Amino acid sequence: MSSRNKFLLMLSFFAAPMLAAWVAYFGWHPDRHKNYGSLLPVAPLTEVQGKLLEGTPFNLDALKGKWLMVYLGAASCDAGCAKQLYYMRQTRISLGKDQDRVERIWVVTGPGQPDPGLIKDHPGLRVWRPGQAAFIDQFPGARPGGHLLYLVDPLGNLMMRFPENLDPKGVIKDMKLLLKASQVG
């Protein structure tokens, strides 16, 4: 091996890491994580006084420190409502040891009482009726007959919305990432 070839080999050993660093910094962009749910402008929930299904007063501030999966829907639960409640339950169960960090709430909009059989199928689901109609106005995209699922962080801020025809795997992935990264709740 000539001295020139030895010099070029030594030069390549020292130049290769710098070239790799330059390519990694300027040219290579790994897939960035995309949330399944839509991030909302973080806003604290207000008008959080209301009553549970049994009629006992309950303030949602009592659940601060927990992640809240919130579904807004009429008391007459149709097929879309039942599907969202089922997905909420299954998502929470799939979180394993972290499921105690998440609460599920069905915010009943309008008059009427939910079917007791449906409530029995969802142990641990809090069925809550807000004291003020203004509570529902805080949820972007909420409309009568809609089936959106929302996420409230442990500090009481509305922060994410999931689509009506949701993919439970996407919700589970988002929830696991949030719970892993969160130091609160």
Explain this structure to me?
With 185 residues, the chain is α+β, with helices and mostly antiparallel strands. Helices cover 32% and strands 24% of the residues. The chain has helices at residues 3-26, 79-94, 116-120, 168-181, and strands at 38-44, 49-52, 57-59, 67-74, 102-109, 126-130, 149-152, 157-162. An eight-stranded mixed β-sheet has the order 1-8-7-4-5-6-2-3, with helices on one face. Strand 2 (49-52) and strand 3 (57-59) form a beta hairpin. Helix 2 (79-94) crosses helix 4 (168-181). The longest helix has 24 residues, at 3-26. The radius of gyration is 24 Å and the shape is elongated. It starts with a helix and ends with a helix.
What can be said about this structure in brief?
The protein is built from 4 helices and 8 strands; from the N terminus they run H-E-E-E-E-H-E-H-E-E-E-H. The chain has helices at residues 3-26, 79-94, 116-120, 168-181, and strands at residues 38-44, 49-52, 57-59, 67-74, 102-109, 126-130, 149-152, 157-162.
Show the helix and strand layout.
Layout: H1 3-26, E1 38-44, E2 49-52, E3 57-59, E4 67-74, H2 79-94, E5 102-109, H3 116-120, E6 126-130, E7 149-152, E8 157-162, H4 168-181
Parallel strand pairs: 4-5, 5-6
Antiparallel strand pairs: 1-8, 2-3, 2-6, 4-7, 7-8
Helix pairs in contact: 2-4
For the structure shown, list the relevant keywords:
185 residues; elongated; alpha+beta
Unreliably modeled segments: none
Count of individual beta strands:
8
**So how many helices?**
4
Strand order in the largest sheet: 1-8-7-4-5-6-2-3
Helix content: 25-40%
Biggest sheet: strands, sense, closure? 8 strands, mixed
What is the mean pLDDT? 91
Helix-strand makeup class: alpha+beta
Q: List SSEs in N-to-C order.
A: HEEEEHEHEEEH
Q: What percent of residues are in strands?
A: 15-25%
